[in-house]
């Protein structure tokens, strides 16, 4: 089965063309080797997928030519324990990270604030 089709069926990517693009960019490895979209995969292959800042490593457990519901798609692969632990750590760090908007006290300057800044600059 083609790698791009399997990634689409396993719901790693929303469309098959998007999965092919990501494979072409080098964000997907099969058995620790760069892959092409048409690469044939088999059960037992290890697939490493990089999505944003998240690295996911899975072992292929089943093949499916059709995209089904999420619970069925999750049965197509098994995530490695190291990958699951790293994903959970990243989620915890995101949860504990400070909200960027808390640094902004008053938000954007108003028209009045900008006029006061201009007056201060001219007076200097």
From TrEMBL:
PROSITE patterns: S4
SUPFAM superfamilies: Alpha-L RNA-binding motif (SSF55174)
UniProt keyword Ribosomal protein present: no
Chain residue ranges for the region called Disordered: 78-124
A single GO BP: cellular response to heat
Sequence ranges assigned to domain RNA-binding S4 in this UniProt record: 1-64
Keywords, alphabetical: DNA-binding, RNA-binding
Domain of life: Bacteria
Sequence ranges of Basic and acidic residues compositional bias: 85-97, 113-124
Molecular functions (GO terms): DNA binding; ribosomal large subunit binding; single-stranded RNA binding
Record CDD domains: S4 (cd00165)
Similarity-based family: Belongs to the HSP15 family.
Protein name: RNA-binding S4 domain-containing protein
